[in-house]
């Protein structure tokens, strides 16, 4: 399924860079903090160094993005940071934001128009959420799993 998904992205002018060698995903502190992640998502991280749209406004986060070593202008948790900034020191709101993001790991970011993301909800068996600015935490479930997400992209039900 992953190969078909990557081929689809390439056919739609996405830039894909493979890792020279498979990386140890769980040696990454951010990724290991989430515990068990979907196998196909981990396979994507092991195989690919970068997966970005031709205009670099949409991307799948890769291992170097989670470690801060990719040179990406945004941090992997940028939308959480934006929400925390908006909370302006409101302790309850800040705690709610942190609590919400604790079980959600973003894997896709878009700055093409309004800021948006897709994330794996580790609290809901790996379902996929979609969120948008300004209330990133008011996200909607769009797929039951990472594989279901890829299938929906391939069928056109989800447009990246």
Would you summarize the structure shown here?
Helices cover 37% and strands 22% of the residues.
H and E order? HEHHEEHHHEEEEH
Please tally the β strands and state the result: 7
Low-confidence stretches: none
| Largest pleated sheet | 7 strands, antiparallel
CATH topology term: SMI1/KNR4-like
Quickly give the CATH architecture: 3-Layer(aba) Sandwich
Structure description:
With 160 residues, this protein is of the alpha+beta class. It is 37% helix and 22% strand. The chain has a seven-stranded antiparallel sheet. It is globular. It has helices at residues 2-11, 29-32, 39-47, 63-67, 78-87, 91-101, 146-155, and strands at residues 15-18, 48-52, 58-60, 104-110, 116-121, 127-132, 140-143. A hairpin with a 7-residue loop joins strand 6 (127-132) and strand 7 (140-143). The longest helix is centred in the middle third of the chain and has 11 residues, at 91-101. It has one domain: SMI1/KNR4-like (3-Layer(aba) Sandwich), CATH 3.40.1580. It is built from seven helices and seven strands; from the N terminus they run αβααββαααββββα.
Task: Please give a handful of descriptors for the protein shown.
160 residues, alpha+beta, SMI1/KNR4-like, 7 strands
């Amino acid at each position: 399924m992953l190969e078909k998904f990557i081929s689809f992205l390439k056919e739609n002018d996405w830039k894909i860079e493979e890792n020279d060698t498979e990386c140890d995903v769980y040696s990454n502190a951010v990724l290991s903090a989430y515990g068990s992640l979907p196998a196909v998502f981990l396979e994507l991280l092991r195989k690919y160094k970068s997966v970005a749209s031709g205009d670099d406004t949409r991307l799948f986060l890769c291992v170097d993005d989670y470690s801060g070593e990719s040179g990406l202008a945004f941090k992997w948790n940028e939308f959480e940071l934006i929400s925390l900034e908006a909370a302006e020191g409101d302790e309850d709101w800040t705690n709610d934001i942190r609590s919400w993001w604790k079980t959600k790991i973003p894997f896709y970011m878009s700055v093409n128009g309004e800021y948006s993301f897709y994330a794996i909800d580790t609290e809901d068996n790996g379902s996929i959420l979609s969120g948008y600015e300004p209330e990133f935490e008011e996200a909607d479930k769009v797929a039951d799993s990472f594989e279901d997400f890829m299938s929906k992209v391939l069928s056109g039900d989800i447009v990246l």
